[in-house]
TrEMBL record:
The lineage of its organism: Eukaryota, Viridiplantae, Streptophyta, Embryophyta, Tracheophyta. This is Restorer of fertility-like protein. Pfam families: PPR_2. It comes from the Eukaryota. InterPro entries: PPR-containing_protein (IPR050667), PPR_rpt (IPR002885), TPR-like_helical_dom_sf (IPR011990).
Length: 167
């Protein structure tokens, strides 16, 4: 925060990238509430959060287990006109599965598919892993079969996930 205060002190106007960097630093050390204060300061300075801004905060919330706050931020982001990306959905899906909220994760995955957001191998791996870790092995197997039927390129990560799943 020292450098940020210094920049303000010499009359420089921080841009979105500088605010994002500061928020990312706070989130990396688990100080998400400090990052939210930076977001508020950014908005007060007349700058609009970007997809990157929201992604940083979503990741921060999910990493400390505050999934409800992450979902609320996800909704705020959508209402503000920032379109969710594959990466944002991946963050939310991973957070939901890690917190045992499997039903909600499956709903988000369905929404992602219905919204036309690109679903890549990383997303499939998150979902397969989440299903396996939450004792939904049969669903993981069905999804894996769907991927093969759709000719989705199965990578080593997905194969390792399925091995972990004991299928």
């Amino acid at each position: 925060m020292y450098m940020f205060d210094f920049i303000l002190g010499i009359g420089q106007r921080p841009d979105v990238i500088m605010y994002n960097s500061l928020m990312d630093g706070y989130c990396l050390v688990g100080k998400v509430e400090e990052a939210v204060r930076v977001l508020d300061a950014m908005k007060s300075a007349g700058l609009q959060p970007t997809a990157v801004t929201y992604g940083i905060l979503l990741n921060g919330y999910c990493k400390i287990g505050r999934i409800a706050a992450g979902l609320s931020l996800f909704k705020e982001m959508s209402l503000s006109g920032v379109k969710p990306t594959t990466i944002m959905y991946n963050i939310i899906l991973d957070g939901l599965f890690c917190s045992g909220r499997t039903v909600c994760a499956k709903e988000k995955f369905h929404t992602m598919n219905e919204s036309g957001i690109p679903v890549g191998v990383d997303t499939y791996n998150i979902v397969l892993s989440g299903l396996c870790k939450n004792n939904c092995t049969d669903e993981a197997i069905e999804l894996f079969k769907e991927l093969r039927a759709k000719n989705v390129k199965i990578n080593v990560m997905i194969l390792n996930t399925m091995i972990f799943c004991n299928v």
